[in-house]
Write a structure and sequence with these properties.
By secondary structure, this protein is mainly alpha-helical. It has four helices and no strands. The chain has one domain. Helix 3 packs antiparallel against helix 4.
Length: 112
Amino acid sequence: MSNPEIITRHDLIRLIGDVLTEIDVLSSHFDPGTKDRDAFDEQRDKLDTAQRRLVHSTINENTKELKDISASLKAVNETLSRTSSDIDKIATTFESLVNLVNVIQKIVELVP
């Protein structure tokens, strides 16, 4: 991220893309139609929708609200990064993913 305190729209779009790739890799460990695969796919769909909305919009990057949410996003992304490479930590990874999706959805709500 270019500014450690506030995530820019471009940084957020890139971060979401990176997470989408991670979800694709993680979900490939599960057969299609299984509970775990469906859960990852659902979160992926939410992120994809958020990313498309951000691509086609603008956001005021200078608000206190975005600064606060950016701090939350950074923390949850770090947690996700620590666990996503270990398939044995799939429950923790999924919990972090859900938290990340929720934070990103809060940012998308700031889009006019």
